[in-house]
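TL;DR need C-alpha cells for one chain.
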Amino acid sequence: MALLGIFARACPVFAWLLLCLLFGQIAQAADTAVSTLFVPETNTQISVNLPGDSSDDVNFYISAPDWYQYVAIGFGSDHANSLMLVAYPAADYNHITISPRFSTGNTEPIFAPEIKVTLNAGSGIKNQSIIANGTCHGCRSWATGSINARSTKQPMIFALGPNVGLSSDNPSALLRRHMGYGHFEVDMIKATGAAAGGLGVPTNITSGAVLVGDGLERDRNKAATAHGILFAIVALAVAPFDTLVAGALKRWPTLHAISSSLYFAMVIGALVPGIMISKEHILTQKFSTGHQVLGLITIVIMFGMVLWGIALMVIKKSAKKRGQEPPESSGLMSKVHTWVGRLVWLLFLINNGLGLKLSEQTMMFVLGYAVLAAGVVIFLLPVYFCIWRCTRKPKPKDEDSFELHDTIYNQNPNGYR
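>> reply
TL;DR here they are.
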C-alpha cells in the first residue's frame, strides 16, 4: 500500500517532466527550421527559412558590420540570373533599405520593383551592424531561376560592399563593386517549417549551410586598376615627355615618332579596360558621365593629331626628296600639331581627376593627385621655356635695312659712290 501511495504521488511529477521534455523537443525542432551561415572573417551572418510548403515566401536574417557599404545575398549559383537582396543604411542611418535586384550578367544588379520585401522588427543599424530581418514574398521562383525547397545543397551567394559610405532610402541607389564575395550551399529541408521566435537571433554558429570553395574571395577589379594606372602614367610621365619632344626638341623627329607611338598605344591600352568596367555599372553603361565623355573626346582629338602628324611628316619628306624646302603651310601645321598636343595632355590631366571622383576615391586621394599633377606642370614649364630659348632659330637679318644704312653713311662728297 505504501508503494502504491508513493507511486500515486510521483505520477504528476513524472508526467510534468515528460511534458517538459516533449515541449522542449518540439521547440528545438521548431528552432532548427533555420539554416545559418556564419563567416567569422567578416562577422557576417545569413539565416534562411521557408515557412512551409503552402507558402512561396522566404524569411531571411542578414547581419554584417556597417563598415561595409552594403551586404547582399543571392539565390542562385552565380551573379547572373540570381535573385538578390541588398541591404544598406537608410538616409537617417538608423533604419535600413532592402533592395531586391536582378542581374543578367557580370554587371551591377538592377532594382526589381515587382519583388515585394517586408522588413520585420529588429531591422536597422544596431551595434554598428547592418541588420535585415525580413520576408521576401513569392520569392521561391522568378523569371530566370527558382529555389528547390527539397534540396540539401541549394546554391546561394553573398557579397559585401567596399568601405565607401552609402546611406539612402532609394532602393535603386547606385552600388560600388563588391570587395568580397562567396558561394555557399543551404539545406532547405532543414530550413523548412515554423521558426520559433523568428529568425532575428544573432549567432556565430553555422548550421545547415556550408561555404563552397575557398570561402570568402577578395575581389580585385584588375580592369579598373589597369585603367587607372595606365592613364596615370600617360598623364604624368609619357604625355609631358612627348610634349617636350614635339614642342622643344624638334631636331629629333624620330624620337618624337617613337614617343608619340608609345603615348598612343598606352592610351588605347588604357581605353580597353575602361570600356570593360563601364559596362559593369548602371551609371556608366550609357557612356554619359563627364569622365567618359571628356575621355572619348580627348582620344578622338588625339587620334586626329596622330593622322595630322603623319600627314605633316609625309609632306616634309616629300619636299626633302625633291630637294625643296617644305611648303609654308607646313609651318602652321606644325604649330597646330604642337599646341593641340599640349591641349590633349591638359585634358588627360583633368579627366584623370574626374575619373577619381567617379570611382568615389577619398578626397585626400583626389587632392593628392591634383597636387602631383600641378607639380608636374609647374616643374616642366620652365624646362620647356629654357629648351625653347636654346633651340629656337635666330631671326634672319633684314637686308634692306643694311642697304639703307650703307647708302646713307657711305656716300662720297660728290653725291655718288
